[in-house]
Amino acid sequence: MNPIGVKIRAVGSYAPEKILTNEDFERMLDTSDEWITSRTGMKRRHISAPEQASSDLGIEAARIALQRANLTPQDIDCYVVASATPDYIFPATSAIIAAKLGATDKPAFDMEIGCSGFIYGLTVCAGLIRGGVHKRVMLIGAETLTKFTNYEDRGTSILFGDGAGAAILEASEIDSFLSSDLGSDGSNPAILLLPTGGSRERVTQAAIDAKRDMIYMNGREVFKFAVTKMIQSTARALEKAGLTKEQCNFLIPHQANKRIIDAASKYLEMPPEKVLVNIQEYGNTSCASVPLALDEALQGGKIHPGDIIVFVGFGAGLSWGAVTWRWQ
Ligand code: UT7
Prior knowledge:
Elements (H helix, E strand, L loop, with lengths): L4 E10 L3 E4 H7 L4 H8 L3 E4 L6 H16 L8 E5 L10 H9 L6 E4 L5 H14 L5 E9 L9 H4 L4 E11 L4 E8 L7 E2 L11 H5 L6 E2 L1 H22 L9 E4 L4 H11 L10 H4 L6 H11 L8 E8 L3 E8 L2
Parallel strand pairs: 4-5, 4-6, 11-12
Antiparallel strand pairs: 1-7, 2-3, 6-7, 8-13, 9-10, 12-13
The structure holds oxa(dethia)-CoA.
């Protein structure tokens, strides 16, 4: 029996038209372009329109990926969405996307792992293909974080943007998936959470007035955790793949803060030309940030067959993970 490998056949991404710049924030809050740029590396974020939900962004990215792969929605065996901002608690955003694309009989499920969703998603989707369950899976990271952003809080509002990225994974004779290192520590969810709207705390007027239906984050704690886990998980994923950091051609990290990326890359001795950063254009788009950066690199002709890529992410949960991938 031949073992089944997996590859990424095509990628697509989408970001809404409306842009919020650091200068816009200067007019809204007690902040400055200098503070935001030096503390985060961010300059602009794309903001979804009021009528745009995460599925609408995901559909745009998925359509582009399908077009590039020359495939129809029916050619996809399973739809998976990674999102911290799904359309609803239920039903699954993936089912909505599949149906709107025209596939109403395919398996579809969502993954909610904070900003680590796309990294976990790569692992799960590769597993479905390598295990022989499906031949072709669409993985979509889609987020509308700005709908859950408290624009009175200067510590969080400047960080988040909206966007989506989609990757079509399919069976392959050569295996692109080399390793995965995933983790979680749910002992203190309050570090980064959306307090109300789930089964723990219902939406009441008092909760809305207290902005408990918006993102809450202890930035300093998340920062320390993010640097540590980005370093550990990247190192472990490379070790599991039997590779050295020198053999890694590209690190594609979750884009949460340029200082987090710089601190971890420095420790990992990854030179800047190997570390893909587009945070200046999108801000933190959670599960969409890694596929947005991957798509940009592919469209820019940066990535070539044989290149070793480490995708690494971290976020609410707390959760973290890294996947080592050989591009083909
Ligand atoms: O997707 C995964 C989840 N998110 C992350 O990974 C984010 C992780 N955390 C961070 O990126 C950083 O902690 C932040 C960018 C959120 C904040 O940067 P920081 O360097 O950790 O700042 P801080 O929270 O320690 O605040 C330093 C100062 C404070 O003033 P005081 O108390 O020293 O007077 C803040 O009030 O900066 C102030 N501050 C601001 N000043 C101007 C906080 N936000 C702003 C702002 N403009 N937007």
